[in-house]
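FAQ: What does a ligand-bound record look like?

Like this one, built around zinc ion:
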Amino acid sequence: MKAAVCEVCLKNDMLCEGCSKRLEEGEISEEAVELSRYLYSLVDEYPYLEDIEISEIYVGEDVIVIVASEDDVGKVVGKGGEIVKKLASEVDGAIRVVEVSDNLKKFSKNLLPDVKIYGINRVFSPGEDYYKVVVDSDDSSRIMLKEDEFAEVVERVTGEKAKLSFK
Ligand SMILES: [Zn+2]
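The answer part, i.e. the structure of the complex:
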């Protein structure tokens, strides 16, 4: 399994030097470590979880976003959502499992599955270009991520800057 921490750290309660450095530097969060370990603990029951690759676990205030490869999204969700339900009850909150993409447009759509997106346009601004993701303001409650959280998870995954804009 590839998750927020290395395989050794998935199996142990302590963090290795490399993983604790990543934690200190804010590359991963405590919650991501705990959730990765919990997911790993399910391998006995669901052996196919052994091979999954999680590229990011982003902890927002109202939702945790788990970003996985295309083949692994279904595995993390589980049959009839049984695994994602376990994860949600473990963290006592909402979980969204999203397919990874380094393409900002594609990833933004993956990240906002139930939100109407009018357009995603590159904005050229001095010093800092970004993508403006124009969404329907009626769908704002479905985003679940705050604007700065959306921008952060998009940047972590795609390396590009994005801003939500409501219409
Ligand atoms: Zn480690």
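Follow-up question: can I read anything off the structure? Yes, for example: Residues 101-167 form a domain with the GMP Synthetase; Chain A, domain 3 fold (CATH 3.30.300.20).
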